[in-house]
Amino acid sequence: MSMLTHGLEQPVAWAERPMRILTARKAQLKRLALGALTLLSMGSVLTALIALRTAIYVWRLPA
Q1: Residue environment code for 22-40, b if the CB has 16+ CB neighbours within 10 A, otherwise e
Q2: Residue 53 domain boundaries
Q3: How far apart are CA 7 and CA 1, in angstroms?
Q4: Three-state SS string across the chain, please?
Q5: What is the structure's pLDDT at 53?
Q6: What does the alpha-carbon distance between residue 28 and residue 36 come to, in Å, rounded to a whole number?
Q7: Rounded CA gap, 53 and 47, in Å?
Q8: Distance from chain centroid for Cα 29
Q9: Is the entire prediction scored with pTM above 0.90?
Q10: Measured distance CA(37)–CA(28) in Å, rounded
Q11: Rounded to 5 degrees, what angle do the CA atoms 7, 17, 33 make?
């Protein structure tokens, strides 16, 4: 038996039992996800504003 696969034949205990997430933990995960989404949205808006400002600057350059 290979040392790399030793013990993989046995079922993994944590995979068999059902996952129970407490309501407090679920609410915390929701807040974290909402905060991450807000941060990404703010980053998108900031990027769009920088692109708009750059486009206006380039458009006003004398040719």
Answers
A1: eeeeeeeeeeeeeeeeeee
A2: 1-62
A3: 10
A4: CCCCCCCCCCCCHHHHCCCCCCHHHHHHHHHHHHHHHHHHHHHHHHHHHHHHHHHHHHHHCCC
A5: 96
A6: 12
A7: 10
A8: 12
A9: no
A10: 14
A11: 105
Residue with tokens 């609410």: 27
Q: Which residue has the tokens 């900031």?
A: 46
Q: What is the per-residue pLDDT across 2-59, written as a single tens digit (0 to 9) for each?
A: 666 666 666 666 666 666 778 888 899 999 999 999 999 999 999 999 999 999 999 9
Number of independent structural domains in the chain: 1
Token output for 47: 């990027």
